[in-house]
Amino acid sequence: MLPDKMKNIKSKIFVIAGEQSGDMNAAGLIKKLYALNNNLLVKGIGGDYLKSVNTELLYDYSSLNFVGFSAVIKNYLGIRNILNSCTEFIKSYKPSVILLVDFPGFNLKFAKKIKKFYEGKIIYYISPQIWAWHKSRVNLIKKYIDKMLVILPFEVDFYKNEGLNVFYAGNPLLENTDNFLKNAVKEKNENPVISLMPGSRKEEFDRIFPHLADAVPELKNKFNAKIKLIRSKNISLTGFENILGKLKIQVISPESETEKYKLILNSDLVITKFGTSSTECAFIGTPFISVYKANKINYLVAMKLIKLKYVTMVNIISGKQIVREFIQSDLTTGNIIGESENILKDKIYRDRMTEEFRNVKEIFYKTKIKEPPESIINEYLI
Prior knowledge:
The chain has 17 helices and 13 strands. It is an alpha/beta fold.
């Protein structure tokens, strides 16, 4: 119980989520914090998800969300201005906790700038994938971050070996999909349903969707399939009207995560950009193909930096190829059709894939959560 003189003093948090999945996961965490502490004041950078849980946004993440080195360089001045503006804001706002969510290019620079004067706690929720590339960033994390709250089991040992204060916070995607599956019933499809998920960022969508569109006529003809395009609300289809008109595929913009999960569950196959959506497919149990197409320069640079054999999370965690990855020149109609046939026509192949999904989920279930992330953060709130 707060003393009377303290009741009007808000517990302040500043949060930065720089893209859609971070926005969603940060919002879930903030919602849990409100359940523990209704005296919160939350401000920061995010999107519709954070806004929906009473976060006052200084900037929408779209002001910062650029894919690839060339896009970041092109928008450098705007990004720098936001960085400086947020740094100055912290001086007057004086939050007890700064919550950084993934998005390392911006968040680690921000942590470095504010550490010169900021006296509260800087907590990193959802680790940047420095175990895959840019491992040198671990030195910045050691220097500027007070606590890491990670969502992948193997990240605990990675950070412990680096001498960092790290806690496994559970995986919000696993929690969300498990809650959905409790009451979900899969529909029976007369014809195969294939859903396309080319990404939630414009640059990614514009590069990936045309390759998926090229495969649609053969997917329809060979499998008599119904094709759905699952589109994030922030993706404009301007420029694709003629293609969509010719293909006659259903375009759906889910109004909620539950609606998106229903679309995934009721698909026989999803062709998706690797990332959050591919992990959601695995947790829901829907077979998928993982794809990506990047700017040539960005791809060449990334290949020199990335130290992993695979880029799709279920493959990384299992240490083997559960799902096929078609990246850059491998993203062809022939490859998509061939793997679609494996999944849709070969029951043993399909069942083996879904069984491997369950094995990956078991790894998460067996990793214990000593203390939920909202409790850890709440300890530092005034």
